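Tokens as discussed.
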């Protein structure tokens, strides 16, 4: 399995979102995801962050590879403020995006909420 270096990006507007999509697409390609899964991952993550920036929220995003106990996964993490999270979490587009990801964990953090998306490589 191929690894990717940790990448960080601040997403606060549409231009940042386009750059994030490019980074996600390259990362998923490098890690060996199928073209269809590359598209699903990119669409899902960008939809969640698009919903956040629509509420004028800036998100620091980290993209990295994780290997634990014979599991190889792409992990995308971001922090968002509590008010924004509550506004976007139940939007139908965000709920649909969550369903496209293998594992989504949301935890309280000092900043509001920490969201972790984990997608396993088959």
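Sequence:
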């Amino acid at each position: 399995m191929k690894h990717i270096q940790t990448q960080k990006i601040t997403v606060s507007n549409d231009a940042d979102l386009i750059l994030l999509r490019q980074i996600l697409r390259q990362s998923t390609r490098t890690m060996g995801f199928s073209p269809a899964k590359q598209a699903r991952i990119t669409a899902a993550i960008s939809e969640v962050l698009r919903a956040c920036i629509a509420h004028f929220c800036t998100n620091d995003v980290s993209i990295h590879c994780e290997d634990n106990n014979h599991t190889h996964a792409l992990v995308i993490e971001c922090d968002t403020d509590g008010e924004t999270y509550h506004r976007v979490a139940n939007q139908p587009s965000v709920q649909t995006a969550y369903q496209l990801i293998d594992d989504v964990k949301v935890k309280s953090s000092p900043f509001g909420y920490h969201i972790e998306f984990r997608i396993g490589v088959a």
